[in-house]
Amino acid sequence: MGVTEAILLTVITAATPLLIAALGELVVEKAGVLNLGIEGMMAVGAACGFAAATLSGSSLVGVGAAVLAGLALSAVFALLVLGLATNQVASGLALTIMGLGLSGLIGAGFVGTNRDAIPPVYIPGLTDLPGVGRLLFGESPFVYVSLALALGILWFLGRSRAGLTLRSIGENHVSGHALGLPVLRVRLYAILFGGACAGLAGAYLSLVYTPFWSPGMTAGRGWIALALVVFASWKPLRVLFGAYLFGGATVLQLHLQAASIGFPSQALSAFPYVATILALVVMSVGERKATGAPGSLGAPFVPDR
Amino acid sequence: MRHLIKAAGAIAFAAALTGAASAQEKLKVGFIYVGPVGDFGYSYQHNQGRLAVEKALGDKVETTFLENVPEADAERPIEQLARSGHKLIFTTSFGFMEPTLKVAKKYPNVMFEHATGYKRDKNVATYSAKFHEGRYVQGVIAGKMTKTNTIGYVASFPIPEVVSGINAFMLGAQSVNPAVKVKIVWANTWFDPGKEADAAKALLDQGADIITQHTDSPAPLQQAEARGKLAFGQASDMIRFAPKATLTSIVDNWNDYYIARVKAVLDKTWKSEDTWGGFAANMVNMAPYTNMPDDVKKAAMDTQEAIKSGKLNPFKCPVFDQDGKEVPCKGQGALSDEQVLGMAFYVKGIDDKLPK
Amino acid sequence: MRLELVPRRDVPAAARILAPVAALVASILIGGVVIALMGRSPAAALDVYFIQPLTEGWALQEIAVKATPLLLIAIGLSFCFRANLWNIGAEGQFVMGALVGSILPLVTAGTDAGPWVLPAALLMGALGGLLYALIPALLRVAFGVSEILTSLMLVYVADLTLDYLVRGPWRDPKGFNFPQTVNFDAMLPYLAEGGRLHAGLLFGPIAVLVAWFVVQRTLFGFGVRVSGESPKAARFAGFNPDRLVVAAFCISGAMAGLAGIVEVTGQIGQLKPGISVGYGFTAITVAFLGRLHPVGMLFGALVVALTVIGGESAQIALKLPLDLTRTFQGILLMCVLAADALVSYRVRVVTTARA
């Protein structure tokens, strides 16, 4: 395996959890809801995924449990922000606090437990191709799922009727409601989808990326995912680009350090964050238009009958 | 059901009140951890020490811990332990130094033990472990086992403990293999499994065939295992995470020290002093040597024995710094404790740069 | 079946005040059941978590100390949030404030520099936070770059800058090369001997009063409010939206920066890595708990501080795990938010589906 190939593989590994979580949040925000609870839902997903996989001996059960856990937590969030029209920002932050705590309680019994990672895909012949085999045909199943998600969401939002409904609700829930669109129901589905994605991203952390569980293993990835949605101006393919850019910058700085170029490690560690800001500035200068945030983002909706 | 809970609550509440009275004779011992006890690394090992105290001294003691205590906001939790009747308090990270001293002034009858710091007081003792002794042994193993002559080092933050660890590792490796090179990646975190894994991968991709780490999660070991390479575990025996890759782990062992200090308080012989123990004091241990040929195993054991008996000091003079200049030898035939405790230079052969 | 929210008219003030109390009761019930299921005593938990912290002088003082940075940051943030600006980087502005504010105390440490150092340090701290907040503000005004991303990313940059300085150039030369500066001499005085109440606490109530006055009684406050509710109306009324963006961020950054340097000169006494314990993020919760109202945020900060101190007591006295107290903190916050919503709306259960 060549060095370039190895580096690209690492980049993909680092980018995938960000991508999955950010795609989920993108759909939520497109529906006009801001959920800052990604970090918490990811943490619970990671804990539940690892616990279920270890207890059942099946990775698939683990993934399923992680998705359900993310779903359940996002349902609590939905109950608050949709059912009671509470403030979305505060509710999301409360969800993160609760999620980080819950993940610790769930995972406490699994500290120091080892488990084999979910193996990457292997297709005889194709995966063994020199140069690109591993890269294209030997990734973790999660990678293919994340790419499919990106394309699926692109199609859903851009081409499907339901996607159009979701977007118009996110853009202006008052007129959406006036047109008879089921604002709250669509938002509920969007929130649940976002929760499921966050749970899935958590499962990736504890079952593939670093196959064990430990408290705080999300290490702020939920926040990066949130930033990526903004970075992408709410466009699915640009989330993909952003996640790989961020993952790439992270891995690049580690390689620069290993090559001892004699730069302060703090400056190199700051590189992914600065690079993301600069990239967004460049893109914004090129476009010269508004950020593209959904019009009703973050505003609670209470239908007047 | 509700009545049941209420009744149970009332009984337990009453029990707690009466229990408080009888607990007066028990010595209350408090612990402050910087990380979660579930990190399976640094804080986990301190907590093992706490459990060992409970096991050894049974109902003579009652222990309490606070985990994940931020260093910048530690004064209140430490004081809360002192106020709630804890007579001996272990604050187990360097960053707790100033808050520990502040609280200690207010509570002269409470005894404090601060890990890895350098300021003491009448009721504040300090203790630390010579982890660099273990690193030296690792270096010897790595120097003999590497085929590419390149070793990857996943480091956390450039504090003296980490720097002296890197140096001891390098000196150990050079003692058996002068051609060896160490590549260092600063993860700038003690604990972020994903990032540690990526750092290990970057080092492996750049030709390292052995990974050693001074961060707390088993992620780097797992990466070495996945690539069929070798690695060392950190803080606790991590072999279960990488049965084929693990050469050995440095094991922090606070059990004996904690039991001894709690006993000293019970016997009223506790004094403020500084303890800095390594192999000889059993504060640093090596997990079983695995996945290596017998001659390497023997070399490792001999080195460990030599350090333990005092025949070998990892920082025996002369020590040369990165530029090849000899470091002044302030100890007896080796660098002094102060030089090691405040180490801020690299030895010859390391081509990373330390922040100045 | 579904739920329907019906806005209540004329909510009595008493109901608004009682809502958080109801929320406390609700979360105590939820927490009590969980604790009982774990085989511990809910009564003892209640005592340790709420009653002792609210009846003991020491704990009350600690609540005030903990609430101060949260309150200062939240008040600043409320200007951004009112104007619909998502500054989620107060954490970075806090760190930058602490860092810039520490320059003078650092260079004058060990000299007889006189009493001017402290006020100058506080000013520079506020200025440091302000300048750092200007980056996302200007990027937004000039290029339309979203402040959510820039402000958040700059948090990490601020943390790493601090890390670099305290490990490198600003390191205490006598500190065995540990990452920390020397201890500062220019410290905020204590309000009472032997306690931990420092003079920085006074900034809290002052900020509440000033913020209330600015929002309710000044043209600028009016502009911020209007631009949040309807940007078009604000433009009609002659407010320059760009200027409002910059002003809101400046206030927010300055307050976070002030909180940072108050924390350093009031409590910590030196710079070291990780001086912020997530205050900048927690303050977002505080701001919305208090509905962006200065007095509301004062109570919000006190509630959050109480949960931290109560949580620590519960870990000590009852040996409850940290994660349980954290989960409970999340539940409590949710209950407060829900109770607040129930004051504004009546929930109607609609059983027949409507077309």
From TrEMBL, chain A:
Its main location: membrane. The keyword Transmembrane helix applies. Keywords: Cell membrane, Membrane, Transmembrane, Transmembrane helix. It comes from the Bacteria. It is a multi-pass membrane protein. It is found in: Cell membrane. InterPro entries: ABC_transp_permease. The chain crosses the membrane at residues 6-28, 40-57, 63-85, 92-112, 141-158, 188-206, 212-232, 239-256, 268-286. This is ABC transporter permease. It comes from Alsobacter ponti.
UniProtKB/TrEMBL annotation, chain B:
Residues 27-309 form the ABC transporter substrate-binding protein PnrA-like domain. Pfam families: Bmp. Keywords: Signal. InterPro entries: ABC-Purine-Binding (IPR052910), PnrA-like (IPR003760). The keyword Signal applies. Residues 1-23 form the signal peptide. This is BMP family ABC transporter substrate-binding protein.
From TrEMBL, chain C:
Keywords: Cell membrane, Membrane, Transmembrane, Transmembrane helix. CDD domains: TM_PBP1_transp_TpRbsC_like (cd06580). The keyword Transmembrane helix applies. InterPro entries: ABC_transp_permease. The chain crosses the membrane at residues 21-43, 63-81, 93-110, 116-134, 197-215, 244-262, 297-318, 330-347. The keyword Glycoprotein does not apply. It is found in: Cell membrane. Pfam families: BPD_transp_2. It is a multi-pass membrane protein. PANTHER family: ABC TRANSPORTER, PERMEASE PROTEIN, GUANOSINE ABC TRANSPORTER PERMEASE PROTEIN NUPP. This is ABC transporter permease. The lineage of its organism: Bacteria, Pseudomonadati, Pseudomonadota, Alphaproteobacteria, Hyphomicrobiales.
